[in-house]
Give the backbone structure.
Amino acid sequence: MRDAVIVDAVRTPIGKRNGSLAGVHPADLSAHVLKALPERTGIDPGLVDDVVWGCVGQVGDQANNIGRSGVLAAGWPVSVPATTVDRQCGSSQQALHFAAAGVIAGHYDVAVAGGVESMSRVPMGTSRQSGFPFGQTVLDRFAVDTFNQGLGAEMIAAQWDLSRRRLDEYAARSHEKAAQAAKSGAFDSQIVPVPGAASADEGIRIGTTADTLASLKTPFRADGVIHAGNASQISDGAGALLVTTSEHARKLGLKPIARIHTAVTVGDDPVIMLTGPIPATAKVLERSGLAIAGIGAFEVNEAFAPIPLAWIAETGADPALVNPAGGAIALGHPLGASGAVLTARLINHMRDNDIRYGLQTMCEGGGMANATIFELL
């Protein structure tokens, strides 16, 4: 029976908005991580059957199938195809699911999954500026004027009784954990520096405390709890994952890091929008036959601080195992790349700490979520 394994997982440093990566075209950011895979593994890129690439803002510099542009910019053979996926923030996690499914089904022997987002060059929401993407029928169904992630985060904080102080303490801890991980070299094996631009993640703010965050304004509600300091950063970056089967890896002389054990997707309420990781986790655990106590590390994307905190409350996961190297509040959230970035962080952490099972989940625009369980090999 065919399986799907990840042989290598790489990412660029995550750049701040208008930071060191802003001058790099998204095709070249994509090419940078794509080129790193054969350089690190020795695989012939001509063996790649498909590149499945995530990207949310598929306009401007990221239009016209940015995955294919990345393949061509990498200098790979023109015979290597690519497609670009949009499942909002979970785009490259979904790209991994599609690549794994193709490998297991026998459509591919070797695939690459990943994604890119340059939020400096293609600002968030650009694709909505020239149209009305939801349609009046959808808005009428849910009795709203629009869908807003910030308001959804405020709703979650209210529903789970999460105070601003608690959210700010969580955010400060994210920076502390990320700083510790960076200092210890935990990211060194996964980051591929971009020459002349960036060699390390730019978003970490050493010394951040709940007190320093207390003065920030809450833009979504005047009396709210969500602000820039306890939300994910606007970022630039790319990540890539080399996927094949265990058998094919042996034939190629490659040593996989982890097996994609179970992968699921769910839909949830599009108004509160960001609670999808809770049912996605329940579904992936049920499908896998594993219990939450059997998972040794979790990556729960920190789009906003209430999301992982509500997730912990509902799942009963050990908070000490959640986002052990910090999350998007400290490290950034380059939308279409974030799924691959989280996977790179998670499976490298599993390998470094001999953790058998890891679980990754991410909320997504429209009220969706992906969840993936990885098994260390």
